[in-house]
Write a structure and sequence with these properties.
The protein has 141 residues and is an all-alpha fold. The protein has five helices and no strands. The protein has helices at residues 4-38, 48-81, 85-98, 100-112, 114-117. Helix 1 (4-38) packs antiparallel against helix 4 (100-112) and helix 3 (85-98) runs antiparallel to helix 4 (100-112). It is elongated and about 85 Å long.
């Protein structure tokens, strides 16, 4: 089965797109929360500093999710093209953090498709390195 890289890329992209949607919703939630807390119609026991912290925490996770989602999409695109296995693996790991149900299979398929990335390479990486003995040096007096 030589299309594991395509499955991995598709799963990473799905995770990234769902993460983007979640980040956009988080941005809206932060602004709605800030508006609701500052509105005179709502009573709250939170001080203005606590309100700012609550909004800041939501915005922090929205930005982190946005960056991880972009990384997952980029990794998925590289996986579909069978380029830069390390970036593909990084994107798949980011997809775990963005959307767990498709992120885990993405990492598994990226790991299983490692050889597909180096199929056309003249020097595929090996898991064991061969060491060539160096000639003994003669002592100089």
């Amino acid at each position: 089965m030589g299309n594991k890289h395509q499955i991995a890329g598709t799963l990473s992209i799905i995770s990234g797109v769902l993460g983007l949607l979640g980040s956009i919703l988080s941005f809206f939630a932060a602004f709605i929360l800030q508006f609701a807390l500052n509105s005179s119609d709502y009573y709250t026991d939170l001080t203005p500093d606590e309100q700012a912290i609550a909004t800041g925490v939501i915005l922090f996770f929205a930005i982190a999710g946005l960056l991880l989602s972009i990384l997952a999409i980029i990794g998925g695109a590289f996986s579909l093209q069978r380029k830069v296995w390390g970036l593909t693996l990084t994107g798949a790991i980011a997809s775990i953090l963005v959307f767990f149900p498709t992120g885990i299979p993405a990492v598994i398929f990226v790991a299983m498709s490692r050889n597909e990335f180096f199929h056309n390479s003249p020097h595929p990486p090996s898991s064991t390195q061969t060491l060539t003995p160096s000639p003994p040096s003669s002592p100089t007096a």
